[in-house]
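Q: How would the structure tokens look for this protein?
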Amino acid sequence: MQLASNEVAAPPPSTTRSGLFHMPLFRPGTEVTQNGRREIVSHVILRRRELMVYLQGHDDPVKPDRLHLAPSLFTTERSPQPLTWFL
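A: Here is the predicted structure in token form.
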């Protein structure tokens, strides 16, 4: 297959998974944005298979899709931790 001089061939899709993914991490004390206002996460619970986020100063829970938070980077690869205790 020949390409025109200004076209670039796209690399084939990778068959291996990288093990990295991005996901928002809601934990107590995390700053989130709701309707343009900054809020602080009080606590997070699972209720009827749904994640519910409670904000400080609010009694009602909020669904996470209504909150804006920069995603954190996670990995599915194991990373051995050094032994810090002895028997």
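Strands lie at 20-23, 31-34, 37-47, 50-55, 72-75.

Residues 23 and 50 are 16 Å apart (CA to CA).

Upvote if useful.
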